[in-house]
Write a structure and sequence with these properties.
GO terms for molecular function: transmembrane transporter activity. This protein folds into 2 domains: 417 residues, MFS general substrate transporter like domains (Growth Hormone, Chain: A); 54 residues. The chain is an all-alpha fold.
C-alpha cells in the first residue's frame, strides 16, 4: 500500500481543510445570516463560537481515542459527523438550529483533525517524505483561514450563505469513500483498557470553558466578573485534570509525554505563532473592509496572497530546507519574516494601495508561516513514539485552536479598546479604527519577538546535533 500513501495524504488534508476553512468561512456571511434567521447582535457570535468550543474542546480527547480505538476509525467517524452536520447547517430554519448544527460540526472537525498528524507520522516514516507530508498538512493548517474568507465572500455573493455549508457535503462524501479504501486499518491499544473517563470529562470541560471564556471577552471585557469567574473555573478544571493524570492507572494524557523538550517546547512556540497569525487574519479583514472600503468579495481576494505564499513555501521549500539545514535555523528565519510583516502592517496608511502597503507584508507573513509551522510540527513530533503519535497530534491541534481563539479575542479587544478611546476623544472614525488596527499589529509583532527569543534559546539544538547537521549538508 506504499503507493497509496500520497493519495491517502490528500484525503487527510481534504478533511483538515474543511475543518479549518469552516472556522472563517462564515465571517463575511454573518450579516446575511443574522437577517435571514433573526439572530440578535450578541447571539450572532455563537455561529462561530459554538463551532470553536466543540472543535478546540474535544481535540485532546479525540487524539487519545485515536490511539485507543484506531485513528482510521476516529477519522472516518469525524468526517461523517462533519458532513452530516454541514447539511444540517445549510438547512437550518432558525438561529438555535444553526448554532446546534455548528456545535455538532465542531465535534466532527475535532475527531478528524486530532488524528491526522499522527497518521501522517505513521504513513511516512522516512525523514524526507515525512517532511514533505507535514509541509502539505501545514499548508492546510496555516492557509485555511484565508481560503475560508475568500470562499465565504465568493459563495455568499454568487449564490447564498446556505452554500458555504452545503459545499462540504459532496466533498465530505467523496473523501469518506476514498478514505475507506486508502487508509490502512489500525486497531489501537483498546478503549476498555486505556479509557480514562473522568480525565476525559475534566479536560474536555476545562478546554470548552476556556474557549467559551476567551470568545466572550469581547462582550464582557477582560476584568469582568464573567471573564474572571469562568477563567478561574477553567483553571480549576485543568488542575483537577492534571491531578487525575498523576493518579490514573491509564491516564488520558500521560504526563511523561511532556518531558520531551521537543514536544512541549514545540507546542509553546506553536501557540505563540498561531496566536499572532490567526489574529492577524481577523484584524486585516476588518482593516480592508472598514478602513479601505473593500467589498466582501474583494476582501477575500485581497487575503489570497497569504494562502498562496504559504502553499508555495510549505509545499515546495520547507521540506528541503528542513532536511538540509535543520528545523532550528529555518524557524529563526520564518519567525523573523513574520515579525517584519507585522511591523509593515502597523504603519499601513488609511489610503493604502494594495501593491505598496498590503501585498508586501502579506508575502512576508506567508513566507514566514510557511517555513515556521512545518518546522515546528516536524520538530515536535520527532520526540514522540508511534504509540502516542495520536495523542501528540491532538495536543498540537488543541494548542493551535487555543492560540487561534485567544489571539482572535486579544487582538479584537485591543483594537476595539483603542478605537473606542479615540472616538471618545472626538477623533474621526477612520483615524480611530486605523489606530486600533495598528496597535493590534504591534501586539502581534511583540508576540513574534517573544517567539523568536523562545526559539533561539529553548529550541537551540545541542552542539552534537548541529555538528551532525553540518556533516549532512
Amino acid at each position: 500500500m506504499s503507493h497509496a500513501r500520497w493519495p491517502a495524504l490528500a484525503v487527510l488534508c481534504a478533511g483538515a481543510l474543511m475543518a479549518i476553512v469552516d472556522e472563517t468561512i462564515v465571517a463575511v456571511s454573518l450579516p446575511v445570516i443574522q437577517y435571514d434567521l433573526g439572530f440578535s447582535r450578541s447571539g450572532l457570535a455563537w455561529v462561530t463560537g459554538s463551532y470553536l468550543i466543540a472543535f478546540a474542546g474535544l481535540l485532546l480527547l479525540s487524539g487519545r481515542l485515536g490511539d485507543l480505538a484506531g485513528r482510521r476509525r476516529v477519522f472516518l467517524a469525524g468526517l461523517a459527523t462533519f458532513t452530516v452536520a454541514s447539511a444540517l447547517c445549510a438547512l437550518a430554519w432558525n438561529a438555535p438550529t444553526l448554532v446546534a448544527a455548528r456545535f455538532v460540526q465542531g465535534i466532527g472537525a475535532a475527531a478528524m483533525t486530532a488524528v491526522i498528524l499522527g497518521m501522517i507520522v505513521t504513513l511516512f516514516p522516512a525523514p524526507k517524505e515525512r517532511a514533505k507530508a507535514i509541509g502539505a498538512f501545514s499548508f492546510v493548517q496555516a492557509s485555511g483561514g484565508s481560503i475560508g474568507t475568500l470562499a465565504g465572500g465568493l459563495i455568499t455573493e454568487a449564490v447564498s450563505w446556505h452554500w458555504i455549508f452545503l459545499v462540504n457535503v459532496p466533498i465530505g462524501a467523496v473523501a469518506f469513500v476514498l478514505a475507506t479504501r486508502l487508509l490502512a486499518k489500525d486497531t489501537g491499544t483498546g478503549v476498555v483498557r486505556g479509557a480514562d473517563v473522568p480525565g476525559a470529562a475534566l479536560v474536555t470541560a476545562a478546554l470548552m470553558t476556556a474557549i467559551y471564556t476567551v470568545i466572550r471577552v469581547e462582550v464582557h471585557g477582560w476584568a469582568s466578573a464573567h471573564t474572571l469567574g469562568f477563567g478561574a473555573l477553567a483553571l480549576a478544571l485543568l488542575a483537577a485534570f492534571v491531578i487525575r493524570q498523576t493518579r490514573a492507572s491509564n491516564p488520558l494524557l500521560p504526563l511523561r509525554i511532556l518531558r520531551s523538550v521537543k514536544l512541549s517546547s514545540g507546542n509553546i512556540a506553536m501557540f505563540l505563532l498561531v496566536f499572532s497569525m490567526f489574529g492577524f487574519m481577523f484584524v486585516t479583514v476588518l482593516y480592508l473592509r472598514e478602513v479601505l472600503g473593500y467589498s466582501a468579495r474583494d476582501t477575500g481576494f485581497a487575503m489570497l496572497p497569504v494562502a498562496v505564499m504559504i502553499g508555495l513555501v510549505s509545499l515546495g521549500v520547507s521540506a528541503r530546507v528542513n532536511t538540509r539545514f535543520g528545523e532550528w535555523p529555518v524557524l529563526l528565519v520564518g519567525v523573523t519574516s513574520m515579525f517584519a510583516g507585522f511591523v509593515l502592517f502597523s504603519v499601513a496608511p488609511s489610503d493604502a494601495s494594495f501593491a505598496a502597503h498590503v501585498l508586501p507584508p502579506q508575502l512576508l507573513l506567508g513566507f514566514g508561516s510557511g517555513l515556521s509551522i512545518p518546522a515546528l510540527m516536524s520538530l515536535g513530533m520527532s520526540g514522540v513514539g508511534e504509540r502516542e503519535a495520536g495523542l501528540a497530534s491532538g495536543l498540537f491541534s488543541t494548542v493551535q485552536q487555543m492560540g487561534a481563539a485567544l489571539g482572535l479575542s486579544v487582538l479584537a479587544v485591543v483594537a476595539a479598546t483603542r478605537t473606542e478611546g479615540l472616538l471618545a476623544e472626538g477623533r474621526e472614525r477612520a483615524e480611530s479604527l486605523l489606530s486600533g488596527f495598528h496597535l493590534a499589529y504591534l501586539v502581534s509583532a511583540g508576540v513574534s519577538v517573544v517567539t523568536l527569543v523562545f526559539v533561539a534559546v529553548v529550541l537551540r539544538p545541542s552542539r552534537t546535533m548541529r555538528a551532525r547537521a553540518a556533516v549532512s549538508v
